[in-house]
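Make up an example, fold above all:
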Amino acid sequence: MINFFATAQHINPIRNYLMDWSDDLRVQIDIATYEGFAAGKMSITAGTIIFGDIERLSHAGIRMGAGLADAAQEKGRTVLNNPGLVMSKFELLKKLHQLGINDFAVYPVGIKPKKWPVFVRSKHDHGGQPPLLHNADELDAEYDRLAALGVDLDNMMITEYIDVKEKGYHRSYSFMRIGDTYIPRHAHSSDKWIVRGSPVELAEERDRHELDFEEHLHHDHLPLLKPIYDMANIQYGRIDYGFADGKLQVFEINTHPMLVLLKKRVAPERVTRATLMSNRISAAFNALVPEQEPVLPMLDFKPSSLDKNVHVARTTR
């Protein structure tokens, strides 16, 4: 069995995958929520534990998850993403810049950037379409705009823009790690600097790019990415990255990414590729389930009364 943890508001990536793409895995993966476990409403079955969605955990959630992970490992369980060891997005990007791997820096809100343009993004969430800011006045105006929307600026960070254009297009790539399995996922091309996918009008370019990534490029990329996963102490998640003048630039590691689009949202010409990705992901999950489950002691870990509020975006670690 596999116990998969996510926050209650964000269980869809794993739930939708199991419901839509993998009937066999439904009996192998139990979805648990951090909130439910903190409230004593669910127990942990035998088997592997995957802690996903760590970016969205509060200090209390991190503490609770780390305690459970440590107790499980002491009992001989396999644990992916011990919350007490996983580096936060901000910590990881700061470290990658310090090591010279990333050429762009990140800053807490209120610190003046050394290079422009920049954008302001969440430390804990994914997505969004932030504007590029070219000077201190624009940055201050963005702070005011976000504050007016009720955004807690302590949960945001400043990120320097990095140009990852290749052959005239903004390019982004991703790899998924599930235990010891690494799966090449996306190779997107866009005419916009925020690459959320390849637009329809670039379908031919997307297909050429994906084929090149699938057949050739991912073999060159993976040796660069494995040490970053290990440094971040992440065994389950998707790393998003690009290249600036041929040099790797890591954007984040998402510990609870969408695995495959819902079938109803997959374009007919993309069904074959979506099915291929689904099969690879299912095989990776199945590799975490031994043919014969070992008999292991029951976990006696109980969250403390201080660990009830697990889904509050943290400002520091």
Notes: Confidence is low (pLDDT under 50) at residues 312-317. The first strand starts at residue 2 and ends at 6. The CA atoms of residues 81 and 234 lie 5 Å apart.
